[in-house]
Design a protein that fits this description.
11 strands, seven-stranded mixed beta sheet, 273 residues, single chain, four-stranded mixed beta sheet
């Protein structure tokens, strides 16, 4: 039976629920209609990413959302309320943006693969959340935008994740126009991996998750860490780094077992060592 954990906030700071089953931690934004990334909601998401990082039984994380909106981004009402503060909200704005940056980097640095399951609209920091995940599988009803420019607030922090997933021209198109793109265009841009009919979305995500769960957890940890590290390096440095990674990986017990199983035409038995 699946283990269900609910983290509930009060008032407008909506709940985040988490369900663990068969190696997959499924985290759901559950504060429709907008599923805003309030400070409390980001803290709840951060707690689940930290849990996944430290829990050996968690092999894959799926981030989904309830309702027609995956996430509309930061809670503008929450931010606006702090304009009445003595500092016009500066301290709260810094706290919110820092928490968001920490969360997004935690997803990238999490040793477990993180999959975004999107069936709806993801805008601003919501789009940033999708772009920060390792994989994004979406329904044909999904839409994406970085519309901050429309309200005088350029999507500068979402830009970091966006520009590391799509080409510069496509990123600037989204950032400068603020216009919404559909799921097919998001796939063309490279923002998402797969577009599937809505009724099959969870099934397809589950298949991806279970495929990943079947791999060596140590190998996935090594590979994910190396992928993001080398992406920030020059060509020669990247090859030097990944050469060292490959050597260390070859010395791991799981690599020895995996190669032996392949040669022996049997299923490997992973130990995570």
């Amino acid at each position: 039976m699946a283990e269900i954990v609910a983290i509930r906030q009060t008032g407008a700071e909506g709940p985040v629920t988490a369900e663990f089953d068969a190696g997959v931690l499924r985290v759901t934004l559950a504060n429709p209609p907008a599923n805003p990334l309030s400070l409390a909601t980001m803290a709840a998401l951060q707690a689940q990413i930290d849990r996944a990082r430290d829990d050996a039984f968690v092999r894959v994380v799926v981030i989904a959302a309830a309702g027609k909106v995956f996430s509309a981004g930061h809670d503008l009402k929450e931010l606006t309320a702090h304009r009445a503060d003595a500092d016009r909200g500066r301290a709260f704005f810094e706290q919110t943006m820092t928490a968001c940056a920490t969360l997004m980097q935690s997803i990238v640095r999490c040793p477990k693969p993180v999959i975004a399951e999107v069936d709806g609209i993801a805008t601003a920091a919501g789009c940033q959340l999708v772009a920060s995940c390792d994989l994004a599988i979406v329904s044909d009803q999904a839409k994406f935008a970085t519309p901050g420019v429309n309200i005088g607030l350029f999507c500068s922090t979402p830009m970091v994740a966006l520009s590391r997933n799509v080409s510069r021209k496509h990123a600037m198109e989204m950032l400068l126009t603020g216009e919404t793109i559909d799921a097919a265009t998001a796939r063309e841009f490279g923002l998402v991996n797969r577009v599937v009919p809505r009724e099959y979305l969870t099934q397809v995500v589950s298949k991806y998750a279970q495929t990943i769960v079947s791999k060596s957890p140590l190998t996935l940890k090594i590979g994910k860490e190396a992928f993001y590290a080398q992406a920030e390096m020059g060509l020669a440095e990247a090859y030097d780094h990944t050469t060292r990674v490959m050597v260390e990986n070859m010395l791991a017990r799981d690599a020895e077992e995996g190669i032996s199983a392949f040669i022996g035409k049997r299923d490997p038995k992973w130990t995570g060592e």
